Structure prediction request, 311 residues.
Amino acid sequence: MGAGHSHGSGAAGHAGDHRRRLWIAFSLTATIVAAQAIGSVVTGSLALLTDTAHAIADASGLLVALIAATLMLRPANAKRTWGFRRIEVIAAMGQATLLLVVGAYTAIEGVRRLFEPPEVPGIELLVFGIIGLTANIVAIVLLSSTRRANFNMRAAFLEVLNDALGSLGVIAAAIVIATTGFMQADAIAGLLIAALIVPRAFRLLRDTTSVLMEFTPPGLDLDQVRAHILNLDHVKDVHDLHASVVATGLPTISAHVVVEDGCFSDGHAASVLEEVKECVAHHFEISVLHSTFQIETAHIQEEESTSVTHA
Prediction:
């Protein structure tokens, strides 16, 4: 029986050090929290208080992202063979859940304010809204170029974008209230913010759940992989084919490949293994450099099937 394990260069994949950007974004968001908390007390604005709650949630999310980004850089060892690469998935799932909670709260408060609009000083509200939006724009610019680096950075970017949307809502509501006295503008802005937050959070939650459940990576069709391997010379069957994602940019695949009995005596087993590894690394939309294949004969496959049946 032959087995093969393939690693691409830089295998565990370089997670990338994005901590400096996250530190700056977190500092800006923490500043927003302090400024808006003061503004909530000064103005008595429920809208600003809600946006302060958004900012607190976002700051917490960024702090989690910063911790995750630090852990991700710790090297793998015998007990943690992938290191802490998957921490970015867990962190992103937590942030997605947090965004959903904030979105739900915003929706509930928005509906309530439609019927019980509070008295809000428009000008003061506008000033604090602009302060928050300015800081958020700086943070968005900082994180925009790295938002596709991994789940963790994507979630961090959404946290800042979420807070910016909250600031825009505050500004829009402040302008309408200051110019028309229409207090329900605050509630309408809150509902629009919730409508933007929730779908993004659901998508992130779906993607991270897929990774933790070890679903097949999007874009990799295992039926096509199986058919391609079966077309190789000397291959008789493929079974126990599995594929999953450890973390962003780190898909893995494994399978048992049944070859002709003579392959172990004429040297073809090694060439089949090399061809299979080449196949999954270069013939599909998703390049899988982390591959593990067991090369076996039909007799070994039968023995495995029998042992499973009697287990």
